[in-house]
Design goal:
Blueprint (H helix, E strand, L loop, with lengths): L7 E8 L6 H12 L5 E9 L5 H9 L5 E6 L4 H11 L4 E4 L7 H8 L6 E5 L6 E2 L3 H18 L10 E4 H7 L10 H11 L4 E5 L1 E2 L9 H23 L1
Parallel strand pairs: 1-2, 1-4, 2-3, 5-8, 6-9
Antiparallel strand pairs: 4-7, 5-7
């Protein structure tokens, strides 16, 4: 009897103006992924950078044959994720950040044969969220808003997640949110479509201070949630 092929995982990581950080992070990530029992490719989607981020990723590709680069002209995290997700060819499509990734999460994903999506939750039982109190509170508040406004039942839509490629191909073209909410809308749409979602507890320990400002993100995210509510209501009316 022939041995079944290893599962294929496509990791997608949006990057923007990461010149000072990206080369070392790539080395750490690729070293971490060696232990995963799967064929893993990593695509960094550079979006709107004004520094040498793309050049450094291209240089790293000479050392790491499973590393890829896509480029998008606009600085938009969600649009970059969408681009990478739709270009992915693995059995699973996974979202990491350049400063938040985990080979342990990929092993958890491979253990969930029954799931269509696997979410690394900062709020699930057993999670270890070592961020500051303000960011933990922001996550809690955002989840409550999603439950109240969009009737979501999952505990965390932001952070590491894995989605089967056929789910990405079906749902991602319909996602209209970019910026901070592409992945949230994708998860909400998957919930409403009846896909099987598993949540696993996440260890969250920041490798560096957060780049994004909550003061800027919160108003933008709230507007995005209400816009998404309107979009989904129009689609079902």
């Amino acid at each position: 009897m022939s041995t079944p092929p290893d599962p294929r995982i496509s990791v997608v990581i949006p990057v923007h103006n990461e010149e000072a950080y990206v080369a070392d992070a790539i080395d750490e990530l690729m070293k971490d992924l060696v232990s995963v029992p799967a064929e893993v490719t990593v695509t960094l989607v550079e979006n709107g950078s004004t520094d040498r981020t793309a050049e450094l990723v291209e240089a790293a590709m000479a050392t790491h044959p499973h590393l890829r680069l896509l480029r998008s002209p606009e600085p938009d995290y969600g649009a970059a994720m969408r681009l990478g997700f739709l270009a992915a060819d693995g059995d699973w499509v996974v979202n990491f950040d350049i400063d938040y990734f985990s080979a342990d999460f990929l092993r958890d994903v491979l253990d969930h044969d029954e799931a269509d999506l696997v979410l690394a939750s900062k709020r699930a039982e057993g999670a270890d969220d070592r961020r500051g109190m303000v960011r933990r509170l922001a996550t809690w508040t955002f989840n409550k808003i999603l439950r109240f406004v969009l009737h979501s039942t999952v505990s965390d839509t932001h952070g590491m997640k894995a989605v089967r490629r056929h789910v990405v191909q079906e749902l991602a073209p319909a996602v209209r949110s970019t910026q901070d909410l592409f992945d949230t809308e994708l998860v909400i749409r998957a919930e409403r479509a009846g896909y099987r979602i598993a949540e696993v507890p996440a260890l969250v320990e920041e490798r560096r201070p957060a780049k994004s400002s909550l003061l800027k993100r919160v108003p933008r995210t709230l507007r995005g949630v209400w816009r998404l509510r309107r979009i989904l209501a129009e689609e079902t009316s």
